[in-house]
Amino acid sequence: MKIEIDQSGKLERTSIPTAVGISNGLSVTLFISSTEKKVIQRHFRNIKKPKLFSILTFSVLITLGLALLKKKKFSEIVIDREYPGYENIVCEQVKFFCSLRGIEIENIYVKEVGRKSNSHWAALGAYRDKKQATEMKAKDIIEELKNKKPRSA
Question: For all residues of the chain together, what is the average pLDDT?
Answer without folding.
Answer: 89
